[in-house]
Each structure stands twice: as C-alpha cells, then as structure tokens.
Amino acid sequence: MDSLTRGIDTLIAIAIVATLAPFLAAAVPGKRVPQVVILIIGGIIIGPQVLGLAETASVELFANVGLGFVFLFAGYELDPLLFRARYGRNAVLAWVIAAVLALAVVGILEAAGLVHAFVPVSIALTTTGLGTLLPILRDNDMLSGEFGKYIVAAGATGEFLPIVAVAIFLGTTSSVAAIVSLLMIGGLAAVFALAPRLIHSTTITRILIAGEHATSQTTLRLTVLLLLVLLGFAARFGLDIVLGAFIAGLVLRRWAPGHVHSLEEKLDAVGYGFFIPIFFVSSGMALDIDSIAAAPLRLLAFFLLLLVIRGLPALLVYRRTLNTTQRRQMVFITATTLPMLVALAHIGLANGTMLPENAAALVGAGVLSVLVFPAVAVAIGSHTRPQPAPAKPG
C-alpha cells in the first residue's frame, strides 16, 4: 500500500471518529464529556495498538497544523491587559508557586529514576487547559462576575507561561539563543500587528472587505498565512511551533481584518472542523497503551500531582480575594489540563526527551483530570449555592 493510500485511509478513519465525537459526547446522560477526550480515545481505538486502521506518520503535517490551531485559539483568548489587574497578578503568583513545587517534586522523581524528562514533566504539571474548561464552565454559569475573571486569568496563565517555558527550555537551540529568538518572533508579531495601521491603502482595504465572503476568502487566507508564517519562523529559529501559534493568536486579537465575528466563525470551522480533530486523534493513536496497562500507578501519580502542584496553591494565593468555596473550586479548575499535556508529550517524544510510558501516563492523567476535576468544581458550587425558599402554603 503506497503512502497516498495510507494517508487517505488514515484521514477517513479520523473523520469517522471526529464525526461521531459530538454524538457520543451527547449520549452520556447528565454529564458533558469534552469531545477532546472522545477524540483521543477514538485515536487509541483506530490506532496501531488496537484496530490498526490508521497511522500517525501519514498525517503528521496535518496534526502539526492542528496543534498550531489549538494554540492560536489559546493566544486569541488571552487579553494581555488582564495581567495588569489583581486577577492576573494572583494567577502569576499561583503559577510560580506551582512551578517551584514541580521542579522540587520532579527533581526527586528523577533522582529516584522514575522520570527521565525533568523539564517537560515539570512544565506539564504547571499547566491549565482553559480552552477545554471554557465550554464546561460556561454551561454551568461559572464565568460571570468577579470569579469568572479570576478563572480566565488563571487559565490563561496556565497556558501562556508554560508555552514560554517550552520555547526557552525545549527548543532545538540553547536557552540564550531561544530567548533571542523569542524576542525576534515577538518583533515579527509586532510588525504584523502594526501593519494594518501603517498601510493606509483604500484599495487593499476594499479588496479585503469585498473578498471576505466571496470565493477568495481574503481575510481567512490572510489569517492562515499569518499562522503559517509564525509557525515556520518559530521552527526555523529553534522554537517550538506552539509559541508561533500562540503569538499568532495574540496578534490576531489586536488585528482581525474585516468582520471579526465572521472571521472567528470561519477559523472555528477550519480549526475545529478539520485540523484540531486530526491532532487529538493522532495523539491518541500515538499513545503507548501497553505501558499504561503495565504501570497504571504511574498515571494515577501524575493525576494526583496535577491536583497537588497546580491546584493546591490556589488555597493560599486567593485567600484574600475569594471565599472558601471559590478557592476550593479554583483548586480543581486550575488542575484541569489536557491540550498542553498532549503537546508536551508530542514534543518530548519527537525530540527524545520523554519516555513513551511517561508521555502516555501524562496524557492519560490529563484525560482523567478533564473527566473528574471540573465535575468536582461544579459539585462544590452547587452544594453551597443557596436554595430558593419554599413557597408558603395558601
């Protein structure tokens, strides 16, 4: 079977999983299962370790672009002004505490010979999956008011700072070179952000607006070009593509050509409709399930470490700004993560810094965190929410 046929067969299998995912998610009574979990489980089923219907090598390029879209959306959700307020300052402090705890705990695990990827695992234990959390929290009305701002700030910090750490410590160049490259890609992003203000061409503007909803799809093509250029620039200068994608999202937030909501809908269609499912399904296909079955306690250990290292600092940091119930909720909300764990496992396996069994256990712990922690946070809130007074008889 030639490579083209294998690639098409893999895409068909992935498309089946992606199509069934929303129906399977809706089939679970009383609980919204994030589709990303179903996509990963579907990837395991169609992958080489179960049915053998698909292989990751034939869709690697599509999967990398899907990874780029995941973090483009993460960057787009981040408002840099948030970090100037106390929401952001508290979020950064909680992340720094988590980072110190992660370095200490993973250092002990590495000294004991249990972990061989000190940096990727340490970063993984400080992450929060804001993109995965948003639909769950929105459905339970937990994003409104002051508490919602604290949640968004904590989630954004748990995505942004680990991405910067990945760029500096897991790139293909030295840390100093990575910082220089980081500044360069930041400068390039600034040029992209300022370009529309510097170019006052009515002809260009007219063409962009006229083609926005036509077959030329000018604004969508321009945005995809922005993403691919920054992905390519990051990879060429030894940085990981997640950084280029995240910065592309930051740029897009400040500079969205044409009708913003229309562009967002088109990006959702392209990203969530095609590329992002390929990334998550292929990540499931690459999971080493045999190692999880052989050592399930490894997965459980990472699951508990996520709660302790990423979650528990919330009890201390937010003691003056949130009530007891909200702090307990924040513990489980900030400990919920998955996309960044998948990305770190992908990076660690690609550059040889992470053992397959640790990569599989990390992703498995992330899947378990998405299934358990948000449900606990919602339950904590519902148990303390004041109940309506019973109606008086008569």
From TrEMBL:
It comes from Rhizocola hellebori. It is found in: Membrane. One of its GO terms (cellular component) is membrane. The chain crosses the membrane at residues 12-29, 36-55, 61-78, 90-109, 115-138, 150-170, 176-199, 219-235, 241-257, 269-287, 299-318, 330-349, 361-380. Residues 17-375 form the Cation/H+ exchanger transmembrane domain. Belongs to the monovalent cation:proton antiporter 2 (CPA2) transporter (TC 2.A.37) family. Its main location: membrane. Keywords: Antiport, Ion transport, Membrane, Transmembrane, Transmembrane helix, Transport. This is Potassium transporter Kef. One of its GO terms (molecular function) is antiporter activity.
